[in-house]
Amino acid sequence: MKAVQVSKPGxxxxxxERPIPQPERAQVRIKVEAxxxxxxxxxxxEGFWPGIQYPRVPGHEIAGRIDAIGADVTLWKPGQRVxxxxxxxxxxxxxxxxxxxxxxxxxxxxxxxxxxGGYQEYMVVGAEAVAAMPDDLPAxxxxxxxxxxxxxxxxxxxxxxxxxxxVAVQGIGGxxxxxxxxxxxxxxxxxxxxxxxxxxxxxxxxxxxEYVDTGVENPAQALQKLGGANVILATAPDAKAISAMIDxxxxxxxxxxxxxxxxxxxxxxxxxxxxxxxxxxxxxGTAKDSEDTLRFSSLSGVxxxxxxxxxxxxxxxxxxxxxxxxxxxxVLTMGR
Length: 336
Prior knowledge:
Elements: E1 2-6, E2 13-17, E3 27-37, H1 42-46, E4 62-69, E5 81-84, H2 95-98, E6 122-126, E7 131-132, H3 139-142, H4 148-157, E8 166-170, H5 176-185, E9 189-194, H6 200-206, E10 210-213, H7 219-225, E11 229-234, H8 239-243, E12 249-257, H9 269-273, E13 278-281, H10 287-300, E14 306-310, H11 314-322, E15 329-333
Parallel strand pairs: 8-9, 8-11, 9-10, 11-12, 12-13, 14-15
Antiparallel strand pairs: 1-2, 3-4, 3-6, 3-15, 4-5, 5-7
Helix pairs in contact: 4-5, 4-10
């Protein structure tokens, strides 16, 4: 089979031929049809995650079909349409797992980091990490929903917001353009927050009721004029921009951070005390959460905006993503 690997931290993407892997006990093999390129793939490319074993095949937004199953696999059968996301398996034995909190497993496996991911034509994964995929959802559109999609959908549906509440979506990019769509389909009043008037038409097309241009007005003040946001969904990893939103929360409102930035937020205790405000983070979710995301997307018509790229040109697709030129998710497609 054809695969795209990174041989060392900071190395180039290499297109190589590999033997098709065989599933072991409790594993399945998936014939990959599409794999999204996510910004988190940088941790594999540059070696930012401690302990990665190289060569490694990145990719954790995988859509395809079950091709073979290992011993003791009873849930899945060859031919089923499935997906795999960031969460690549759990141990079932640590304290979080024993409480059913699999996403916080202390021995969690991450797809494309702890084992080879979806930048290849076939991949093997533990059966517990597999999500069923609706038949009417094309593989190339389903792939980004298995990381970007589940992160946004799962965060919103587990937030304190209820239908009719004001939800502000900060950033109109890979996460934000999906956040606006999910928020609209969940019945929220949506305010999209971005920089530049050129983003307003797209924000409205995606479902936003209001648009705030941070280049023209203070976002917190703009939100307060609308009554304050019950939830601010932070999707763009700009600590300064996120911090500027906090005062736009309504009483008991929540700043919900899903943008994986490394810089510290700036907030004073009094900002949180006044109005009993909250700041929370949200991790993506398990395979069952991925199933819910895919099903909801199928039913509601939520779809990512994608640019397709053949597997052999993974390096070009990755650069498109890194430079911020993709609108909004790059998806690798397999030639066979």
